[in-house]
Amino acid sequence: MWSYSQIETLKPLFILVKILYIVVLKSILVFEMHELGIAQQIFDTVLDAVQREKVIRIYSININIGELMAVDAESLQFGFSILIEGTPLAGAVLAIRTVPIKALCNDCGAESVIEHYNLLCSRCKSRNVTVIDGKDLTISSIEVDTNGSHNA
Ligand SMILES: [Zn+2]
User: Fold this and answer.
1) Ligand 1 geometric centre to CA of 103 (Å)
2) Which tens digit of pLDDT belongs to each residue from 56-88?
3) CA 60 from chain center: how many Å?
């Protein structure tokens, strides 16, 4: 049997664990928000597009994501898989291609591929650069089966 004093020392530990749990849960939610918002936008765009055509099945949605968007591909795919359940998009695969960041130097005119988000000209080391690629998300193609196809 525990004495009263032993129970008292256990109490603060328990509270600490509880707080940690809430903090972790919150940070996961914040982290997922960005990807979930993007997944929702892709979903809305694709649904709108396929409803205009006579699409009976969607196989895959091919997207290009600029590295500057800092999207976690796994989180995005996870969010998307939840959104499409029970919708006309169910079963569709989200194929993600990452587009590297490219910048044009405003001082020497050179084009550089940016690594580790370090916006710097690779030729003259100037920071006076303009991002010209790798900042957008685009749906490049949607592979579908339409009503007019030969498939039964
Ligand atoms: Zn330069």
Assistant:
1) 10
2) 888 999 999 999 888 999 989 999 999 999 998
3) 16
CATH number for the domain whose boundaries are 7-146: 3.30.2320.80
For ligand 1, the distance from its centroid to the CA atom of residue 127, given in whole angstroms, is: 8
- Give residue limits of the domains in the chain: 7-146
- C-alpha 122/C-alpha 112 separation (Å) is 6
In the chain, DSSP finds a helix count (H) and a strand count (E) of 2, 6
Give 65 Cα–ligand 1 centroid separation in angstroms. Answer: 25
CA of 106 to the centre of ligand 1 (A): 7
Bigger pLDDT: 31 vs 101: 101
Distance from C-alpha of 137 to C-alpha of 145, rounded to nearest angstrom: 24
